[in-house]
Specification:
Lysozyme; Lytic murein transglycosylase; five-stranded antiparallel β-sheet; mainly alpha; peptidoglycan lytic transglycosylase activity; 3 domains; PGBDSf
Length: 391
């Protein structure tokens, strides 16, 4: 869900009298009662509200899924090899041919490459074959009641209510992912309201059953989030043995032509010399290397995981004919318990690494890179045992 959408939805909630705003952490029955009051205060008919929430309940499996995202502890190479297979690539090529007219329309109207959508379609639901079996309303209400991130999910409950009002959502039959996303490309209810496209002309936006609706809606959302037509998003490169590694990472942008002057070369094709780009070293200076262009940052509005985003962007390149990336010979990185220890040490030194979870997120990468620079180590943001020992 995009950042400015979160802010807008939260503003609507805050505009209501606080006496009718449901609070997380109370008993679920009281929470449902307060949500219903809030819905009526927003102007929804009482009978509609009662019908919508009639069978809602807590889903403990949603909370379990929310707390068990261990796959994101994998390094980029391991994660990419797990998600990308020849079968998944070939299936994507077949779908590109099957829905060629839809992809032509996507590229013409929204400027989004078919490879970008094919990669999301593959990763989110394996081209629609598995869209999740969590009851969507129960998932959204469970996560709204849970006090970890209610501000993200509570507005989605009311967006689902709006879809229900128009006949495009069933509180008992609509299912999807544990976090409330629906359909082949997994969009939240508010995203469907804002960016849904009736691609097949049947008068409804049905992301679960219509590939045309799903693909066009996904493309419209990417454009809404800032996608720039006709520009690349990610390019594999070869880096020299010596470089100012502190300039790597998303926090630094230079023209691709300036990276070329520093010895960075494309592994295939030509660099987009006029575009700003960041040098991405997901496993340090001895591992895979990529230049990330402005469109790459749009990916983070779809998903916040660095590893997921990089893998999705790389997979999109594969649909355009790019070869398998060069994994290189990266130094052995930290994982699990060792990475948690490093995060704890960095946090004690005043760095904001986010949650101590053993996941190499943006905050941890930035802290690692800064500490490497202070200690005179190659500042490539890749946490190693050498850094841990030095600390």
């Amino acid at each position: 869900m995009c950042k400015f959408l979160k802010a807008a939805l939260l503003a609507l909630v805050l505009a209501l009298p606080q006496s009718v705003v449901a609070k997380c952490g109370d008993s679920f029955a009281d929470f449902v009662s307060d949500i219903k009051k809030e819905a009526r205060a927003k102007g929804y008919d009482a009978a509609l509200v009662d019908s919508f929430f009639a069978n809602v309940r807590v889903d403990r499996k949603v909370l379990k899924a929310d707390r068990a995202q261990g796959v994101f502890q994998l390094d980029f190479t391991s994660f990419a090899r797990r998600l990308i297979s020849n079968e998944r690539l070939n299936k994507g090529v077949m779908n590109a041919k099957r829905y060629d007219r839809i992809f032509d329309r996507v590229e013409r109207e929204y400027g989004v490459s078919r490879g970008v959508l094919l990669a999301f379609w593959a990763f989110e639901t394996d081209y629609g074959s598995y869209q999740g079996n969590f009851n969507t309303l129960n998932a959204l209400m469970t996560l709204s009641h849970d006090c970890r991130r209610p501000e993200l999910f509570r507005p989605q409950v009311f967006a689902a209510l709006e879809l229900y009002k128009h006949g495009d959502f069933s509180p008992t039959k609509t299912t999807g992912a544990w976090a409330g996303e629906i359909g082949m490309v997994q969009m939240l209810p508010q995203d469907i309201i804002d960016n849904g496209v009736d691609g097949d002309g049947d008068g409804h936006v049905l992301l679960k059953t219509s590939a045309a609706d799903a693909l066009l809606s996904g493309a419209k959302m990417l454009k809404h989030l800032g996608w720039r037509a006709g520009e690349p998003w990610l390019q594999e490169v070869v880096v020299p043995e010596e470089l100012d590694w502190s300039k790597s990472g998303l926090r630094t942008q230079m023209k691709a032509s300036d990276w070329a002057k520093m010895g960075v070369k494309p592994r295939g094709g030509k660099l987009a010399g006029h575009l700003p780009a960041s040098l991405i070293l997901p496993q340090g200076r001895k591992g895979p290397a990529f230049l990330a262009y402005p469109n790459f940052r749009v990916y983070f509005e779809w998903n916040q995981s660095f590893t997921y985003v990089l893998t999705a962007a790389y997979f999109a390149n594969r649909f355009g004919g790019a070869p398998v990336f060069d994994a290189g010979q990266p130094e052995r990185g930290l994982a699990g318990g060792d990475l948690k220890i490093l995060q704890e040490k960095l946090a004690r030194k005043g760095y904001d690494v986010g949650k101590i979870d053993g996941i190499l997120g943006a905050g941890t990468r930035a802290a690692v890179q800064d500490m490497q620079e202070k200690l005179g180590l190659p500042a490539d943001a890749w946490p190693t045992h050498q850094l841990l020992n030095r600390l």
